[in-house]
Each structure stands twice: as structure tokens, then as C-alpha cells.
Amino acid sequence: MRYLHTMVRVKDLDASLHFYCDLFGLQEVRRFENEKGRFTLVFLAAEDDMDAVRTGLAPCLELTYNWDTEDYTGGRNFGHLAYQVDDIYAICQKLMDNGVTINRPPRDGHMAFVRSPDGISIEILQKGADLPPQEPWASMPNTGAW
């Protein structure tokens, strides 16, 4: 398992980039714009982590900017922790066998979401290529907000 990133929702991307990059000293390492989903993801890293980020070995801060306006209350601006795993189905089965609800099952063999006992959302991503869909995951419904 490898820690990937922490996601924070931002209301004003320019103001956030000014804070995190110009003032705080982080550097933008990649950006993803999704017109269909109407959001932009910007990944940032500290200067001392840049070499490790380029080889995929350092975690980043993910800023998520939703193009449609929304006020984030009750901690909704903090998104989730993300970890990459060798076998998404095995880790989800282990969690489920131990009483953890799989909020977004790994139906596609790529991504799942669970919550910690304190309600922190955790994204689990399959390392490498997506695994082929398999039961019971392929037909499991979402059980709540991720």
C-alpha cells in the first residue's frame, strides 16, 4: 500500500494557487480538467519532494475546484485521503469482513471509497491496470456519500 494524496476542495482556484504556491511555496506538478464533470484537479508538491513526485514516489496535495459555485460547510472542503493498493478487491474484502462499510464498491476494479471510524473518507485505487470486474463488487450499490 502507498499513500497517494490528500484532497481539499477550493472555492477560488486562483486565490488558492496564490496561497499554496506563491505564498506557501508548493509547486504545481499536474492539472486535470474535466469538462463533463465540471471540475479541475491541481496537484501540488513541496520543493524538496519534486524529484520523488516525478518518479511517483511522493504524495501530493490535490486541490479540487468545482466549476459550479458551492459553499462548503461542516468540513466538506476536506475531501479524502487516497491510497494505492496491489489488490483492491482483497483490501475491500478484508475491510468488509471486519465490519467496514464499503461506501463506493470497486465495481470497476479501479476505485473504492470507505470511511474511517471518525468519518474520514478514504479513496482506494488499484495499482497498475484495473482489475476485471468481479462479484460481489460488480453489482454492489453505493451505500452513502464518499
Can you walk through the features of this model?
With about 150 residues, the chain is of the alpha+beta class. About 20% of the residues lie in helices and about 35% in strands. It contains 3 helices and 8 strands; from the N terminus they run E-H-E-E-H-E-E-H-E-E-E. The radius of gyration is 16 Å and the shape is globular. The model has no long low-confidence stretch (mean pLDDT about 90).
List key phrases describing it.
146 residues, alpha+beta, eight-stranded mixed β-sheet
What is the compact description of this entry?
The chain is α+β, with helices and mostly antiparallel strands and 146 residues long. The protein has helices spanning 13-23, 50-54, 88-97, and strands at 2-10, 27-34, 39-45, 60-66, 78-85, 102-104, 111-115, 121-126. Strands 2-3-4-1-5-8-7-6 form an eight-stranded mixed beta sheet.
How do the helices and strands line up, and which of them pair or pack?
Elements: E1 2-10, H1 13-23, E2 27-34, E3 39-45, H2 50-54, E4 60-66, E5 78-85, H3 88-97, E6 102-104, E7 111-115, E8 121-126
Overall shape: it is globular
Total number of β-strand segments?
A: 8
Spatial order of the strands in the main sheet?
Answer: 2-3-4-1-5-8-7-6
What Rg, in angstroms, do the CA atoms define?
16 Å
| Helical content class | 10-25%
> Beta-strand percentage?
35-45%
Q: Mean pLDDT, nearest integer?
A: 88
